[in-house]
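Task: encode each sequence below as structure tokens.

Item 1
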Amino acid sequence: MNECTWLKEFSAAISICDKQGVLLDMNDAAEIVFEEDGGRELLGRNILDCHPEPARSKLAHIMDAQEVNVYTIEKNGKKKLIYQAPWYKEGEFAGFVEFSVDIPFNLPHFIRS
């Protein structure tokens, strides 16, 4: 997989899998997030095998349906936005990308016209 140089050191954790769920790549921040699970040694493994139920079934569903899944979590004293979305190659579904972004607990919300 071709790596964009700015993605490697981008502060949000970014991981990408193919349409079967095999982890293809991750940036440095994702390697740190998944360090306890093996970090870069997870490359080549199926991401479904890394998730317990009910998260595994939810992930399998969004992958099958090619749906976007967005939510927030709190873990280890940090609040994160998780954004999971399909990616495409030459117009065909190729897999999923996950962004995990640290966000403030009191995130401002603006309505713009």
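Item 2
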Amino acid sequence: MLVRFDQFRDYNRLADQFDQIWRRPSSTVAMDAYRHGNEVTIDVDLPGVDPDAIDLTVEHDVLTISANREWDHNEDDEVFAAERPHGTYTRRVLLGDSLDSSNLQASYDHGVLTVTLPVSEQAQPRKIAIGSGNGRALIEASTSN
């Protein structure tokens, strides 16, 4: 029978313990943002977060998403692994002037927070009529003050 000997086994175990003690949970969360038609959608991964622990605020065109994920365990529990992040997560998203933050909608399903913002009417694409006069194309631009 062969016996496997790893001279660094104890060192690796000690390094893992220090890593778990000093590891700070990430304060950011993964997100996707995309535009479809006249809406911008932001999907934020918040697995294991209670919906009541999610806070959305909009101030001066900045959307702030805060969430808190707690891990409840007893002091006398013997923890074998603690790799899942927990604590407070914050993500700030700068909203452009073209988004209507007053009509923001949010939903939370299967660990994903979905925030939907309509594109403001002034920023939506529109057709511009081009007139013609005497065989030449005539394009008029006007501004009202």
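Check on item 2: The two ends are 92 Å apart (CA to CA). Strands lie at 31-36, 39-45, 54-59, 62-69, 87-94, 105-109, 112-118, 131-133, 136-138.
End of task.
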